[in-house]
Specification:
The complex is a heterodimer of chains A (274) and B (69).
Chain A: H1 5-8, H2 24-38, E1 45-49, E2 64-67, H3 73-83, E3 88-94, H4 95-101, H5 103-112, E4 117-122, E5 125-126, E6 132-133, H6 157-163, E7 168-173, H7 177-189, E8 194-199, H8 203-207, H9 215-225, E9 226-228, H10 229-232, H11 237-240, E10 244-251, H12 257-273
Parallel strand pairs in A: 1-2, 1-3, 3-4, 4-8, 7-8, 9-10
Antiparallel strand pairs in A: 5-6, 7-10
Helix pairs in contact in A: 2-7, 4-5, 5-6
Chain B: E1 3-11, H1 21-25, E2 31-33, E3 37-39, H2 50-53, E4 60-68
Antiparallel strand pairs in B: 1-4, 2-3
The chains are: A alpha/beta (274), B mainly beta (69).
Chain lengths: 274, 69
């Protein structure tokens, strides 16, 4: 299905600022396509971002959008959703924005089970500030601040969300653009906190330092390390080393915050009328 | 029935950043890289959207085209 680009993009702002071959455009397109295929009301869809390369995405999207402060996209989105629960609220964040600066907002939104869709443009690096390592930089990878290779172990963001009580977590990559689109659709349709870890290539700052010289090499690097979640279950811890699962990692029914909040308000209003 | 379905692939040269991912992802060898990606053989296109979905620049559109006769 061809995308009606004029409907969803602020075409006057295009072309975007991202580097040639940057995965962020592919993830942005996956979001737009998911919104299109779900036939969401564009007047009732809000996109919120923090700071970083990923955070530039809402600037090109023809919805009500907010470009907020570093790490705080989920905090702003929480306010929007609590005040106007009828809106579809989509958060675009990066790996640094979501896991480092905004790590607390992420885990608490997951714990609260507020009906937000959070899509992490995970390029394993701080691209906008020229390639410092992030909490998602793989062990041994090079960044401007890890010239001898990253010593620390990275977060598994989906596991972090699940550990914090999150009930929907999924992962895919720019290589798997169709699957990524489907997962974003499922995440938006899910009633509750939904997190999608979208691996996205940064050829400029990650690729060049890690002998992945072209965008395609980076995407093949995602493909080679990804394992469908059904096969992942059968792998031993040794076999999982250096790899990651793609697909829906968890999906469960749980009480959503704006629903119970609404019930509480109705109860209190009834009591006040007595 | 005399009706053939074709796919029309177009490249927006103003948005394209020449990364070449569309050419790499096309399973049917429809596109080739010149100054910008260009359609080499439109008849081979099966409308899978691999080029469109992997274009980071929203620069490729694949549309179904109906031709009579």
């Amino acid at each position: 299905m061809a995308l009606p680009i004029d409907k969803y993009l602020r075409v006057a702002k295009m072309p975007h600022i991202w580097c040639p071959g940057c995965g962020h455009g592919i993830v942005t397109q996956a979001i737009v396509r998911a919104i299109h295929e779900l036939e969401l009301d564009t007047e009732k869809t809000v996109v919120v971002s923090g700071i970083g390369c990923s955070a530039r995405a809402p600037g090109y999207l023809h919805f009500d959008t907010l470009h907020t402060t570093h790490g705080r996209a989920i905090a702003f989105a929480t306010g929007i959703k609590m005040a106007k629960p009828e809106l579809n609220v989509i958060v675009i964040t990066g790996d640094g924005d979501a896991a480092a600066i905004g790590g607390n907002h992420l885990i608490h939104a997951a714990r609260r089970n507020l009906d937000l869709t959070v899509i992490c443009f995970n390029n394993n690096i701080y691209g906008m500030t020229s390639g410092q390592y992030s909490p998602l930089t793989p062990q041994g990878s090079y960044a401007t601040t890890s010239p001898y290779g990253m010593l620390e172990k990275p977060f598994d963001l989906c596991n972090l969300v699940i550990g914090a009580g999150g009930t929907f977590a999924a992962r895919s990559t720019t290589y798997h653009a169709r699957q990524l689109t489907n997962l974003i659709k499922e995440a938006i349709a899910y009633k509750g906190f939904a997190f999608v870890d979208a691996l996205s290539q940064c050829p400029t700052y990650f690729g060049r330092r890690n002998k992945l010289r072209t965008p395609l090499e980076m995407m093949n690097w995602f493909k080679d390390r990804s394992v469908p979640v059904s096969s992942w279950e059968k792998l031993s811890p040794e076999e999982r080393e250096g790899k990651f699962a793609i697909g829906v990692l968890t999906k469960a029914q749980a009480t959503e915050l704006t629903e119970v909040y609404k019930q509480l308000i109705e109860q209190l209003q009834q009591r006040g009328g007595e | 029935m005399g009706k053939t379905l074709q796919w029309e692939v177009s490249v927006n040269s103003k948005w394209c950043k020449k990364c070449g991912l569309c050419v790499e992802f096309c399973p049917r060898d429809v596109l080739e890289m010149n100054d910008i990606p260009t359609v080499k053989d439109a008849a081979r296109c099966i409308g899978c959207l691999m080029c469109e979905m992997h274009c980071p620049d929203f620069a490729i559109t694949v549309k179904r085209r109906e031709n009579n006769g």
